[in-house]
Amino acid sequence: MLLDQITKANDIKKINPQDFPLLAAEIRQFLIESISKTGGHLGSNLGAVELTIALHLELDFPSDKLIWDVGHQSYTHKLLTGRKDGFAKLRKYGGLSGFPKRKESDSDCFETGHSSTSISAGLGLVKARDLMGENHTVISVIGDGSLTGGMAYEALNNAANLETNFIIILNDNNMSISENVGGVSKYLNSIRTADAYLDTKEVVYNNLINFPKYGDKIVRGIQNTKKAFKQMVIPGMFFEDMGIRYMGMVDGHDINKMVRLIRESRRINQTVLIHVMTQKGKGFAPAERHPARFHGAEPFNIETGLPTLPRVANYTDVFSSVMIKLANREKKVVAITAAMPDGTGLKRFRNMFPDRFFDVGIAEEHAVTFAAGLSAGGLIPVVAIYSSFLQRSYDQILHDVCIQRLPVVFAVDRAGLVGSDGETHQGIFDLSFLSSIPNMTIIAPKNKWEFSDMLNFAVGFGGPIAIRYPRGEAYSGLAEYRKPISLGQGEVLYEEADICLIAVGSMVKEALAIRSAIKEAGYCCSIINARFVKPIDEELILKASQVHKLLVTMEENVLSGGFGEKVLRLLTKARAKIKLLSVTIPDDYVEHGNVEILKQEIGIDNETIIREILKQFREE
Asked: What is the model's pTM?
């Protein structure tokens, strides 16, 4: 195999150019076979194979710098820098990351995981290069989906002033995670025919030159106002008018054309944008037909493209179903997502209520302020965003929603540990950053039944409220416990003595197993379902402190600013004479890997928790 000849960066330059198509085919086959076993981002990587090959042929690593926006399309880059053997443990604990990682390779110059950041990072690397007196090339690769994020335009605004080389490659596949939306998408659609400008110019000139009497004058006038004419018909004038040199369009699967264009762009002392057209999922029919499904794929059968793991109902499915019921009952309910109608479970809502569904693109900040405007206009917006992406809109939640006490519901999906995507995607900070905002209410369900009840409660709440729920199977146990939701009130599930577990959301299920082990050890154990993280049920917690010897708070959030700290502050203020153990995620970033393995590594698995509880209690 040609791929076996690449064991380190720049080895690709030893391969015969006639073999580049074969190398691309080998890479695609390797990715399909590998990701079918491990899961991962397939569609975006299959579409970027030739583009990555061209970049590696023209650049020299690690001297030259390549920044991948989001980074989930960097698998071919990893292969071409000698990391092929690591794909057996892709996205597994201790294995290869699904995103660029500086500690993984010196050919990864910048770590990414969220969208629309690559141009800003690249601009910083360009300025650093020039100030340090160096002369390497810096290239940022950004998808058309990431161009729906406002940060990309803030960076373009600054990059337009450069008088030094900086290359931006727009990898245009007409997709983000789902199909792109909005004006940017329409603009790019309008320039996706590479010959449009030349064909239009030729037709217009030929017609005008033959126009009786005034044809000559009109043509000369157009020639004197060439830029105005180009503005009407030339692809890329939006970028040109900003001061960015636009080059393209180029077939992103034509290696030789891309190499020539990249080489030419390196000689230009300003910011250059190369517009590259690619096909997401190229080379694998199921991914070509269903690119959204293969954005982040679970292990699958190569012949059919179908997942090999059994499908289980998850919290996102529950959210999807309940949102339909809410919208049928309350006409003011509207739904907002940031480029993830499939991932957040709003696809059915979009199909049934198209006028009440809003996909704003990869623009979480805009999504929140837009929701604030909808709310101020009398509607009830439900904003569905993953926990790790919601943190991008902190200021908008604080400034535009909570100061005005606007009724906006935040459906915080993927809260807690999410596993394989690693540090940039773990939802372990939302309780902390949301709790710091005045007027915000935060709730977390113990099971799918309570999740449904909490959504109903939130829609009628009348103020800013966030519901955080985990990735994965929706817990269906404890169905007999369905006490109505009341503001700031927790729920007693088991009432005994000795030890009291106060669990938040997904940790209630874990508390049940821990309670069984504690009772087997000969001790009594109560369980309180916290329900509310803000405000906490002060009365219930203080009552528990009076009848137990040890309180244990349990949450899938970092320690700083979390539920446990709130309970500690309450007990300290009340001068309660009781020991408190807070089970939390350490104040650190959590690597990628299987969630159960991650829990063991950070000390919040059941065995570790039980051992620490019994140790603390026996020391009492």
From this structure: 0.88
